[in-house]
Design a protein that fits this description.
about 20% strand; elongated; about 60 residues; alpha+beta; 3 strands; three-stranded antiparallel β-sheet; about 30% helix; 1 helix
């Protein structure tokens, strides 16, 4: 599994997998690491977590 490293300038360098589909995302010196390919995967993760929390109540 690839890992992103924090550089001396505070940015992340290297690759991290998308938390939804495991595609590698190049961080390109960003201050905060990218966690998802795009907004659709972020939305899917949010909605899935929401429904899991609701289902856990019953």
């Amino acid at each position: 599994m690839a890992r992103a490293r924090r550089g001396d300038d505070g940015g992340y360098y290297g690759d991290l997998p998308c938390q939804w589909c495991d595609a590698l995302l190049d961080q390109k010196g960003r201050r905060r690491p990218r966690r998802y390919c795009g907004p659709w995967h972020r939305t899917k993760a949010y909605v899935t977590g929401f429904f899991v929390a609701i289902a856990g109540l019953f």
